[in-house]
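Class, carefully examine what follows:
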Amino acid sequence: MRWLDRWLGVPLCFLLSLCTGAGFSRVRGASQTRPRRVLCIQLAEMGSLVLAAPAMYWLRERGLTPYFVSFSRNADCIGLSGVVPAERAFLWRTDTPFLFARDFLRFLAWAWRQRFDATLDLEPCSRFSALLGLLAGARLRAGYTHAHAYRGRLFNLPVAYRSDRHMSENCLALAAALLPGETACSADAELSWRARMASPVSTAAAERVTAVLAQRLPQALAGARLVLLNPNAGDLLPQRRWPMRRYVELARQLIARHPDVCVGFIGSSVEARVVDSLAHELATPRCASLAGMLTVHELPALFARSRTLVSNDSGPAHIASLTLTPTLVLFGPETPRLYRPLGPARVLYAGLACSPCISAADQRRCACEDNRCLQAITVDAVLEDVEAMLSADGAANRRVVSADS
């Protein structure tokens, strides 16, 4: 997607803007026909899907039916956040260039069959997503305008992208553009988050988590307080990683200070080998790697059993916001003003002069090879916040388990 944006995005946006005619910026018939079927485009980032969820709830409350297109690796996250049911999501495979191109054609056929009334481009500055919104054939097309990201006149409902407000609020403003006279604010995002976090985890997921803990970390089932550490941030932006050695030191100090605490390292199956090596360094049965043992869909059930989560700025931190799990998130290359998880998550952010260095305008590229913004966050600073969360009343840190999956 970045390659297409860089080499083909600008000329395609220019040419298609010319083809649409001089009246492209006007919305024809919007006051006469209220949109019903809305295609929402959020392709790459797992955390951004969670932040977009309040806008989807807002649309549903007003009688609109949201559909979604996203990359296939985000399938579980779409289900968790309650954005749309599976039958209203198009999952785009990106494993190979051939599959990517094939699913582009499949997407066009699917979108035209659905006969969408409107599209919401939730990608702040992607030209590729803007082109998808146009090719989907909807009458109304809402998307962000940004001074540093040319996308022509592909939107007839342009909304200014604001870096001084949270992404959930930006998404709500975009959704409100579809309904003249309607407004949406941060209170709507907070109310939607609270409604979602109260929903139960599935019995099947809870049973799977119990089985994994029994195998890897039985102390967590025997009354020990479970602290989860997420040392990874995916391959897209490795600059978001707090130094892994510090996660090891944090785990070592927590275990030494608290005889009733056990530590679980989490991560995907791709990250399992590295995460396993971190846990093995502590050489204690009170610390284990859970990486690769659970799916994204099962993470909330794991979070429900934990007392706190310490995480880099990545998907698991946002998934934890759908539960009552106290979370500490470490920010550096990106700003928490835009991307902090919803709810009462704590944030540590050094705020160096060079930070944030990642923005939507440059397609979240970053050439930095020395993330001093995260290195400036010490183990002692993280430990202090974790201690405060452990000392707080943890009775509310449990989600109800449903009787069905």
